[in-house]
Amino acid sequence: MNYRILGKTNLRVSEIGFGTWPLSGNMNGANSYGKTDEAESKNALRTAFINGINFFDTADLYGFGYVETLISKELGEVRNDILISTKGGMINENGDTIMTSSHLFDSLNLSLKRLNTDYVDVYLLHSPFIQDITDETMETLEKMKDCGKIRYYGLSTKYVNDGLEAINKYNFEIIETNFNVLDNRCKEIGLFDLCTKFGVGLIARTPFSQGIISGEFSYNEDKTDRRNLIPNDKYKKITTTYDNMLQHVNHKEYTKAQVALLYCLSESSVSTVIPGMKLSKEVLENCSVCGLEPLSTEELKLINFEYKRL
Q: Average pLDDT of 74-91?
């Protein structure tokens, strides 16, 4: 595993992090990437740790507390060797949020209880509308930091453009946002450059575009897999374009997932990439990119050419 520093924090994060939302399954009425098996989920978390992943991204909303508890059960004994990032403020899967001080403190305290820890390394506001972030919100985050319940804080963006205001107006230390081979918006609007300029840690989420890019997802009968709602024309456009991109990759033995992760890691402003994972075999495949030859300048150029044709 390779490691990078998360912005100007002193956190040394694995290049491949663990996006834990898929572990929600249908627990407590959740609706994520389909049903899960708890034993396999624990095995995936343990496999990640054994193979050098030290950054685990979760949220109180994931399984409505279930995933935080799962992390504690499986990785509690190695708490001092891992970095936990959790989120607060989103109250349902419709994306509604509450950003008041009392709600955020209550949410954090419940997260800490489920995680069985006194602190989290990173606390992210969970995709609020940018206008709902107030001076009170920022003061709350600072108080959380001052009392030792969080080490650093940041924003998991609702919209890509929110990252710009979060840095320019509120001086957020960490930004989590969508970025993948078929979604370069954060790069196009200058968010990468801004993060580099101000030393903001950048967490790249959705590197597989909900598993479509990696080939993990195909339409199925599982009603708890929300990806079945993806329009077929969007699905076909993504898969067709990505297949065209793969024609420009010289290493034909690289898997779809590996190329997608290598693409994200080609950006020096990206601190860690957090693919969503459910199975230990997915963890091993994703970790393997750290031993592969990076994509060349020419390969990246041709891949970006296909992107601009979208």
A: 97
